[in-house]
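Subject: complex prediction, re-run

Hi both,

The earlier run crashed halfway through, so I resubmitted it with identical inputs.
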Amino acid sequence: MNKILKTLMLTFAFSFGAFAMASCNDNTSSNSTSGTHVHDLETEWSKDATKHWHACKDCDEKVDKAAHTWGEWIEDKSATDTEKGSHHRICSICLYRADEEIPMLSPEFGAATELTAIYAKVPTDWETVNIYYWGADIEEGYAVGWPGNEMTLVNADEALFGYKIPAGTDHVIINNGSVQTVDLEYAPSRNLLVLDKLNAENKYEIYYSTYTPTDSDPELAQPEYNIVEKITVYAQVPTEWEKACVHHWGSATSTDWPGEEMTLVDADKHIYSCEVPADITGIIFTNGAPEGTIQTVNLELVDGANAFILTTTDAEGHFNATVGVYENGNITQL
Ligand SMILES: [Zn+2]
Ligand SMILES: [Zn+2]
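This time it finished cleanly. Structure:
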C-alpha cells in the first residue's frame, strides 16, 4: 500500500468517526431530527424483554423507547396439583409476547385415613432413610420414636423409598439419621416427597409430586402395632420443690424438657407419681422450672423398684437418687 492511499484512508476514517459521533450526541431519543442528521427509522419496532423502540437505520439511536404496555395475562395451560401451568401477555404497542410459568398448585393437606403408602426421593448419597410421623389421631400402638422407622428402597437409581404410614398421620419428617427435612404436612393427593434444597437451618425443603407404584415394587415396610405397657413411678423430691416433673426417653413417645408434670400423691412426704412407658431407657426428675431447672442425674428404671428417692447433689448440682418400693403410702428403700 502506498503512502498517499494510507493517508487518504486515515483521513476518511477520522472524518467518518467525527460525523457519527456528532450525529449521536446531537440527538435525544424523543426527537427524531436534528440539525445534522434526520433519523431514518425502521418501520418495525425493535424490542427486548422489557422495552420497545424504533431503531435508526443510520445510527445507534433508539427512538420512542418505552416500557412495554402489557395486556392482561392469557392462560395457556392451567397449573394443577402435579404440573406447572403457563400464561402469556402481549405488549399492545409492539406485540412483544412474554411467556411465564404458573407454579404448581399447593396440595390440600390432611390426615391419612388408613394405612397409606408414601414415597420420598432423597439425595443419592443417603443410605438409610427413615420416616418419622405424627398426628393427633394416630393409634397409640403405632407411635414412633425419633428418628422414625426405616423406609423400603423402591428404586436405587432414583433414590426412591417408600413406607406405609398409619391412619391419622398428618405430618412426617424424612431423615437419614443426621440430615432431615423440615416438618412436612401430609398431602393425601400427593404421595411423593421430593427432597429439593437445604434451607438456612440445613434442613431439606421438598416439593410434592406423585408416584405411581408398579407391580415390581417391593412390599413396603409399615409400623408394627405395639402397645407399650405403662408403669407407675413414684419420686420423693426435695421439700423446696413446688412441683415435680418427669422427663424420659427411649420409648416411642418421649417428653419435652423439662418434663411432664407429675401428680402429687403425698404432700407431707413430697411424693409424686406418674405413668411412663415400661420400655424407656432413661428418666430424669425435675422441678419443672423452664430456666435454671433443678434436676436429677440420668436415671434408669430398676427391676423390682417403682420409686426414686432424691438424695445428695453431685458437682453439677444434679440430684442423685436411690431406688425403693412405694406401697401403702410408704417408700421402702431397697
Ligand atoms: Zn439516526
Ligand atoms: Zn412493546
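DSSP finds one helix and 24 strands in the chain.

- K.
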